[in-house]
Amino acid sequence: MASLNRVLLLGNLTRDPVLRYASTGTPIATLSLAVSAWRADDPPCYIDITVFGNQAEPCSEYLTKGQAVLVEGSLRYRTWEGQDGARHAKHEVVAQHVEFLSKPKAAAEDGDVPAPSPGKEAPAPVEDEVPF
Q1: FRET partner for 90 with CA separation of 20 to 30 A, picked from 33, 39, 113, 114?
Q2: Distance CA 53, CA 59 (A)
C-alpha cells in the first residue's frame, strides 16, 4: 500500500526563528507557526517547523515574529530522553520549502521590496500598459 506524507501550512510566526548548527556544520532553523482554524470560534493550531540546510540561515535572518509564511514539508514524529530521564515525544514539520509572504522587518522599515525566498526567482516587473 502506498503512502503520502506531505504538509502545506499557511500561518504566522509566533516567535523569531532560532538558528543553530549541527556538529557537521549544517544550519538548522526552528520556527513556531500559528495556523488559523477553519471556524472562527476554534483556537489556532500551533506547529513547530524545522528547516535544514540552505534555507535555514535566510529564515533566521529575514523572518520575525508575526510574519506570514507558507511552509511545504513532511510530518515527522520525534522522541527523545530529557535531562531528567523522562521520555518526550512530539510531531513536527520538516520543511522542504519556506515561502516568505510578508516583507522582512528591515525592508518594511526601509520601504524596499523583499528578496524572493531561497530557490525562487524574482517575479517579472509589472508594466503599466497592456502590450497589445
Answers
A1: 39
A2: 11
